[in-house]
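sanity check this:
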Amino acid sequence: MGEGLFRLWVSQYMSGFGNEHVSEDPRCPGALPEGQNNPQVCPYGLYAEQLSGSAFTCPRPTNKRSWLYRILPSVCHKPFKPLEEGHLTHNWDEVEPDPNQLRWKPFEIPKAPQNKLDFVSGLHTLCGAGEPRGRNGIAVHIFVCNTSMLDRCLYNSDGDFLIVPQHGKLLITTEFGKMLVEPNEICVIQQGMRFSVEVFGETRGYILEVYGAHFELPDLGPIGANGLANPRDFLVPVAWYEDRQVPGGYTVISKYQGKLFAAQQDFSPFNVVAWHGNYTPYKYHLEKFMVINSVAFDHADPSIFTVLTAKSTRPGVALADFVIFPPRWGVANNTFRPPYYHRNCMSEFMGLIKGHYEAKEEGFQPGGASLHSMMTPHGPDADCFEKASKAKLEPERVAEGTMAFMFESSLSLAVTKWGLQTSNRLDKNYYKCWEPLKSHFNPKCKDGDSTTSLGSLFQCLTTLLVKKFFLKSNRNLRPFPLVLWLVTWEKRPTPTSLQPPFRLNKPCSLSRYSSDLCSRPFTSFVTLLWTCSSTSMSLLYAEYRGTITSLVLLATLFLIQARMLLAFLATWAHCRLIFRRLSTNTPRSFSAGQLSSHCMLYLVRIRGNSQPLFTGRPENTTQCVFHREKIGINKAFSAVCRGRAFQS
């Protein structure tokens, strides 16, 4: 069937997740029995057949079943025989366990003339855990195909298929109707449902299979009644049938206990004229996901991106979650915005439908995959970390044009021999993406590595300069401990923005303050400023040599160096003014702005060994008069920060 004709059949869907749906083919109106499920004679001479997705005695919220009214019942087939096709397995002991971070390059799609593969023959089990006979477990499969299933259908006796097409459209015919599933959409074919896949060229995708549970919407909790994947956006096909005889035999394939079996019948299994129930196949478009994210600070856990979950027997622990990383806004302040470094008690399998994953722009490609097993460390690569650590934190679009997803499971997944060896797609250099990560630890700089940003670089550099200036150059300052409040690039900050980066408690003296401030401190400060700045320039040039970045950084460093020098000169002049006023007996006044305007050092707080040098009380807000008698320096400091002044 051509794609245009197929689209004609699939132009209508019913919406709602887990709803009780009713549908009949318009060619046979009234095909559904009224008032009962199993009449003695069904309309149009149809057979009534129930498809159960749960035990009869399950509570109503979890009871799943549908009634199908078909031309011939499903029981009309010859015996099943083993089918040696595809690369499906549930043997998780083929190879030794591997706890390493694993990544696969895009899985190759064979060319049609050389090797024709349909959906079934192109199935490959990549990893999994658990046992279909025990009804507890999952499996992750890759499918690559280049031709449609002709007179063949498949049903899964072991569990549900969640199908994620990555390349090429899937035109799926089921007993309930037809669905067109394209990249950026998903579909779920639940246990026991027969389906056939038609493709138009090379096609590739991922499958998450769960044993013993069905997918359901996650609980929203404090999010409320709306959000994430909304039930109304899930689409269910409408009834469609074909009354077609197949003299050459129609092949019905069953996946049973991890193996394939085939049986023959002489008619199409897609002969359901009408149906009703809540156990159906469905599809969902990932762009309809309503994203929840942090709007203040920190990176939220990826569980906020859960589309569907298959619950385990333990409350709050999923057998498997289907999680996506859709386009969204990133606005968190003071936050490393990419996914954090992580060691998880869950297994994380990731795939990429399109674009680039935000935490690994290189190496992780559409059509590829990665597996981070239980407690295996993982996180952003070195390039991502460096960029995100230096990025300007403005509102920005994240993952635009990208769609990555994750199958997360509470089971410890084992990789198959095909995944580790036969496929030849394993990236053995995956671990190298973290090798360039380096230590940024600096015990002398609380705000982090001084190379993290230019701002922190110059603040730490200035801190060292002032320490050197007051501790080593001015040897005659002895009796008093000194506290410096360092504030960079703020003309008039509020008191809450002032944080003391260091405290100097060495004794100092006011004797010979004029010569000290005018000679050795000045020379020492300028010399040390030039030495440290030159060293910083050399380091920056070595790191960014030969790029425009190096020129920008060097120019910026020159400007900051000049500003630091000017700020010191202003501070030095104000210090001379303060000390000269203190040395006279006649009180003189000066404005608070003289202390705060264009100064990096807003206040020099000088205390005696036992009593403050200054005491007093505020009287007005215009002038600040310092006597040799003592005034309240704490109050004076608060006033200066607010642009106020005091008079003793």
Notes: Residues 449-462, 464-522, 585-648 have pLDDT under 50 and may be disordered. Residues 548-583 form the longest helix (36 residues). The first strand starts at residue 13 and ends at 15.
